[in-house]
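Recap quiz, item 2
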Amino acid sequence: MTLDDLTRTSGEWLRGAGPESDIVMCSRIRLARNLADFPFTNRASRNEKAGIESQVKSAVDAAGLDVAYFDVNGMNNLDRQFLVERQIISRELAGGEGPRGVAVTPKENISIMVNEEDHLRIQYMLSGFRLNEVWDEITALDDQLEDDIAYAYSSSLGYLTACPTNVGTGIRVGVMLHLPGIVANKQIDKVFRALQKINLAVRGLYGEGSQAFGDFYQISNQQTLGKSEEEIIKILTDVVPQVLQFERSARQDLVTGRRQHLHDQVSRAYGVLKTAQTISSEETMLLLSSVRMGINLGLIDDLSISTVNELFIQTQPAFLQKLRGSELGVEERNVARASYLRSRLANGRAVEDE
Amino acid sequence: MTCQRCQDEAVVHLTELVDGRRKETHLCVACARASGLSLPDAPPDFGLDAVLQDLIKKHVGELVGELAESTCPDCRLRYMDFRTGGRLGCPHDYQVFRKGLLPMLQRFHGATRHVGKRARARPGASLRLRLRSQLRQAVAREDYEEAARLRDQIRLKDQHA
């Protein structure tokens, strides 16, 4: 599998399948792990980073995983950005230095970053609300890797990480939610405050410090010490349904109270995406968000959720440039984006209002 | 340029006119002070790290005492570097800076003890880090025979990893 192959496929987590997938785009767990024998990445020499990389690569090989390894160090900026857009690597790994890379499965549900803030960042993603399933998979993978890697671990503090905010379980359990209803009724701040009170973090699509776009928000645990992985997952599995209920009732209010207005908004969004000749990334996100909600509410019947999910990723700058095979300026990208949207959305039509 | 008196690096450069002739003098700080020249104090360091460290020292210095001055023997990270940068340098830092870390962990996580998944016990797993630290010490005391021995041991360990 090469990077170019990825322009012709899409990740399993975008399938729009699984429980609650009208609102929960995907469930994700990542584990932070370090090799006992080396300084953390920020203090490791170039040689040591190369040593860490080679040990992790052989552990991944030994685990018999079907993965491609991408050497991020030898990669150009466009390719790095492309992997960030696809959620395969973090912005920190893209912007780092020295030997580093990522092992990724063809379905893109597993990615193992090497020499990010920690030596290993193991990530597992599935579409829909399936945290327990994700945990079963990732902990088994973690065990397999441990056959060949001695982890930095203390019996009192657990898995030792470069930042003390990850120490203990090293786990980050997150769900990516599409919340256009709560955004529309301006209750999103209230939801954030409630979640923060129980020590959950709310972030944009690309993690820490990123803006929410297309009304997507990630909710994840912050505390990693003093609770078991299962307890941390349970907090999320208890809380997320409440947010889903809140979003559903907000959507219902929109349907009953302002149906005509909502239908108009959804249809116009769909119309613009299908016909625009030039369109910015921000406008695309905004309109795709309306269309996605429209499909879930039965206002559009000829477009699948998975296509919309894919378009959120495939209308990003690096994807368009990879597809075109050359670097493009902002204006050129806006034209390429509109053209790509027209080709993907051709032949669609909105539901006739009764 | 070297100091005219002691051959250290010269940092004071004096140009005088004596009987209409130009005379240049180059001295290190110590020799300049010894010859009675009054020098200004070192210029303040406006680096953000330094300012932050100074602030933190004022707040935590008394609380943690010598911790503020401590350095990990393995990765050479200073506790104050961690306080400004937020990242630890190696697994041993959790032991070396334990006193400072525990209250921080309690504040952030509401706990100081791991109760989750356990890693497999691997006695001597961090041997390479120890060897690395011993190698650095051997080089510092110019014991090159010992340094070479340690270097070979580390290489052997890397090859068998």
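Chain A touches chain B at residues 34, 36-40, 42-43, 51, 55, 117, 139, 142, 146, 150-165, 167-169, 171, 199, 222-229 (CB under 8 Å).
The mean pLDDT of chain A is 92.
End of item.
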